[in-house]
Amino acid sequence: MHFFYNGVFLIAVLFWGKLENWKEYYSTILFFIACDFFANIITYNNSLWKYQETVFGQEILMNHTIINLLIMFVAYPATIFLFIGYFPSKKWKKIGWILFWVSLYSIVEYINLHFFTLITHHNGWNMAWSVLFNIVMFTSLRIHYRKPLLAWLIAAIWSVIIILYFNIPFTKMK
């Protein structure tokens, strides 16, 4: 199923993505990927969620890390091309666009959690945290596109909040 989801993102970006603007979006794509790498390193021994493959491609998508890399290098760039590429200029439409993407990511996660078991939550993480995370994430992605340093500050603050709230122990890190 992860191949299917990433295939949908790939097809969507090939049809509707503003690929000619890749240099303009490049740093925000890297920001998105870097934040996920950081989250994976910090929570390596204390995961808040784990991806797993249950339907197709279990021989290739055999663990969380491989699935996460697929998502990072297919879904994340596609998301930026579509999210930033079509970001509206009017205030209420901006809010609506962010809420659309928050809803899309949250609904996909809910379906994958409850119907396909492609993701599991751990150590106190739940759908409410995922929705809040998606709000912060999509807001930060937009901010990064215009004001990268502010987005890095938000990411750092959010990371500290997550580490403290979920008691992620530094002593268990490699």
Quick synopsis:
The chain is mostly helical.
**Secondary-structure class:** mainly alpha
Ends: how far apart? 31 Å
Low-confidence stretches: none
Mean pLDDT: 94
How many β strands by DSSP? 2
Instruction: State the shape.
Output: globular
- Major sheet: arrangement of strands: 1-2
Biggest sheet descriptor: 2 strands, antiparallel
Portion of residues in beta strands equals: under 5%
**Cα gyration radius (Å):** 16 Å
- Subunit arrangement of the protein: single chain
Number of domains: 1
| Structure annotation, total helices | 6
Helix content: 55-70%
Keywords: Membrane, Transmembrane, Transmembrane helix
InterPro entries: CBO0543-like (IPR048147)
Key structural traits:
single chain; 174 residues; mainly alpha; two-stranded antiparallel sheet; 6 helices; 2 strands; globular
Q: Would you spell out the secondary-structure blueprint of this structure?
A:
Layout: H1 2-16, H2 22-42, E1 49-51, H3 64-85, H4 91-114, E2 119-121, H5 127-146, H6 148-165
Helix pairs in contact: 1-3, 2-3, 2-5, 2-6, 4-5, 5-6
Could you characterize what this model shows?
- With 174 residues, the chain is mainly α.
- The protein has one domain.
- The protein has six helices and two strands, in the order ααβααβαα.
- It has a two-stranded antiparallel sheet with strand order 1-2.
- Helix 5 runs antiparallel to helix 6.
- The two termini are 31 Å apart.
- The relative contact order is 0.16.
- The model has no long low-confidence stretch (mean pLDDT 94).
- InterPro entries: CBO0543-like.
